[in-house]
Amino acid sequence: xxxxxxxxxxxxxxxxxxxxxxxxxxxxxxxxxxxxxxxxxxxxxxxxxxxxxxxxxxxxxxxxxxxxxxxxxxxxxxxxxxxxxxxxxxxxxxxxxxxxxxxxxxxxxxxxxxxxxxxxxxxxxxxxxxxxxxxxxxxxxxxxxxxxxxxxxxxxxxxxxxxxxxxxxxxxxxxxxxxxxxxxxxxxxxxxxxxxxxxxxxxxxxxxxxxxxxxxxxxxxxxxxxxxxxxxxxxxxxxxxxxxxxxxxxxxxxxxxxxxxxxxxxxxxxxxxxxxxxxxxxxxxxxxxxxxxxxxxxxxxxxxxxxxxxxxxxxxxxxxxxxxxxxxxxxxxxxxxxxxxxxxxxxxxxxxxxxxxxxxxxxxxxxxxxxxxxxxxxxxxxx
Length: 383
Description:
It is elongated and about 140 Å long. Helix 5 (about 240-260) packs antiparallel against helix 7 (about 325-340). The longest helix is centred in the first third of the chain and has 59 residues, at about 65-125. The strands form 4 sheets. The protein has a 6-stranded mixed β-sheet with strand order 5-9-10-8-7-6, with helices on both faces. A 4-stranded antiparallel β-sheet has the order 3-2-1-4, with no helix packed on it. About 35% of the residues lie in helices and about 15% in strands. The chain is of the alpha+beta class. Among the domains are: about 1-60, no CATH class; about 225-383, Transferase(Phosphotransferase), domain 1. InterPro entries: ConA-like_dom_sf, Kinase-like_dom_sf, L-type_Lectin-RKs, Legume_lectin_dom, Prot_kinase_dom, Protein_kinase_ATP_BS, Ser/Thr_kinase_AS. Belongs to the protein kinase superfamily. In the C-terminal section; belongs to the protein kinase superfamily. Ser/Thr protein kinase family. One of its GO terms (biological process) is defense response to oomycetes. This is Protein kinase domain-containing protein.
């Protein structure tokens, strides 16, 4: 301990007092006498200009700084708690975001793998090819409503122009999120790619980019649209010769599907809206989304019910089995549509004529079947 004037210094005894290595604490205080607050006759260690060295063997004191340090320590602890909570919440959020990004990446990768697998399977077939979504978007003017040709249960059809082929095409866009639409898309490409017949709608190509939710089919463009548009619109009239040719073409197509190829093809959705007409009114059967390939001896083992009301063979509803005969039943309904110029079921017709088949049966039993022929033909038809 050293004192000089108004200072008190504390040093370690293990080091020389004047050494720079000696820890030193200096406290400033007043050692001079002051009569206003010093007790009478009591003034300790007043050595004026002299210095002295003392040894302190123990030292105890209290200070208000201890309370302040406690408060600071409490605040510091709170800070650590909030930091720990913040890091925990932030870490959890990072984990959740990381899992989400991983699942998204994995889904996109799976979609790309599925697309690649489908490509490889489709490429084994000769003819149709893959298009990119951007190609088909450009061809249809970004699927503009002005190019829209129609809409079905699982997709929309647009007119498009492919510059590299220099041809007008029909692009069917499967509705996003439709699982049935995806199955129909796969079935259509796999089946129709293998078939070769002049009265089948030709598939030009396909596009599947599932990461963008896009499944598209590209067909030859049929300038005269579907058969039903010509049968049921007041401003169009198919002459009898054209109707007869259409039925012949459809019959030829069914003969090929059922027996002219290595497997039996059950279409299961033959109807007038699935029969397309080219510029010369040649009929071409399309929409093979519900079709199935089966062995010739096992075609009746298809057990899932499919088709359109009014065209489905009633026996299929009971047995839930599709067959060549059920396709032929649907063909017969279309033939009656062509001859009568009306839909299979018409709720606006008189009660006894709502179901076309029942109405024609009654007329046939009376010997008046010719009265069922489309009146717009004006009697110009072959009996």
